[in-house]
């Protein structure tokens, strides 16, 4: 603090920087609040999807177990299902944070394994696992968004704390130091002028 030369020019410059630091802190605080609000909404969505997935997985495995009991182990039939490449990825920005948007191109469920060696239990299992796949895509998107937002909140909080607890107090201390030094200088100048005036009389 004492290394700053106490001039009016320095005082004005530091006051301007202090003002900008306070604006920066307010913006960081707003950004953090918006990110937290966005995250809370996504957490509710993630919880709902997770509950649906748990139920759907349970139903799907029960249906697969029934298919395995009626048809024998369905490995050969499972290999007839092609790999699904229907996912594409886009991004949207929330306060400078890139949030992924997963697009899933849904295809009509068609019988890919034929009718001669299968039954309705396998169709039911296939349908339920298809539903699990769609829910998993949605959950992956939401959880990735939450993860990215949480990281952004952490960084924003760190910057806001640095401004509030280190930078702003430092500038306020500098302003006080320069103001006190200039006031002391003015008092000395006033006393000197008084002495000079007395001597002239």
Global outline = rod-shaped
CATH topology: Helix Hairpins
Average pLDDT, all residues: 86
CATH architecture: Orthogonal Bundle
Helix proportion range:
over 70%
Radius of gyration: 34 Å
Give the total of beta strands.
2
How do the SSEs run, as a string of H and E?
A: HHEEH
Largest sheet, spatial ordering of strands? 1-2
Largest sheet: 2 strands, antiparallel
Low-confidence stretches: none
SS content category: mainly alpha
Alpha-carbon distance between the two ends: 42 Å
The top level CATH class name: Mainly Alpha
Spell out the blueprint of helices and strands.
Blueprint: H1 8-71, H2 75-78, E1 87-94, E2 97-104, H3 120-200
Antiparallel strand pairs: 1-2
Helix pairs in contact: 1-3
């Amino acid at each position: 603090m004492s290394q700053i030369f106490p001039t009016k020019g320095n005082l004005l410059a530091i006051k301007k920087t202090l003002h900008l630091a306070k604006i920066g802190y307010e913006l960081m605080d707003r950004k953090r609040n918006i990110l937290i609000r966005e995250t809370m909404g996504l957490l509710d969505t993630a919880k709902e999807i997770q509950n649906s997935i748990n139920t759907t997985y349970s139903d799907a495995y029960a249906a697969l177990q029934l298919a395995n009991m009626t048809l024998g182990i369905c490995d050969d039939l499972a290999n007839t299902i092609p790999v699904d490449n229907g996912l594409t990825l886009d991004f949207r920005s929330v306060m400078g944070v890139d949030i992924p948007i997963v697009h899933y191109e849904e295809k009509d469920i068609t019988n890919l394994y034929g009718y001669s060696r299968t039954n309705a239990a396998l169709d039911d299992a296939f349908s339920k696992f298809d539903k699990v796949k769609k829910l998993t895509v949605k959950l992956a998107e939401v959880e990735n968004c939450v993860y990215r937002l949480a990281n952004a909140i952490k960084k924003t909080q760190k910057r806001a704390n640095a401004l509030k607890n280190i930078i702003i107090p430092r500038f306020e201390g500098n302003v006080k130091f320069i103001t006190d030094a200039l006031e002391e200088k003015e008092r000395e100048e006033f006393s000197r002028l008084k002495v000079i005036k007395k001597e002239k009389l």
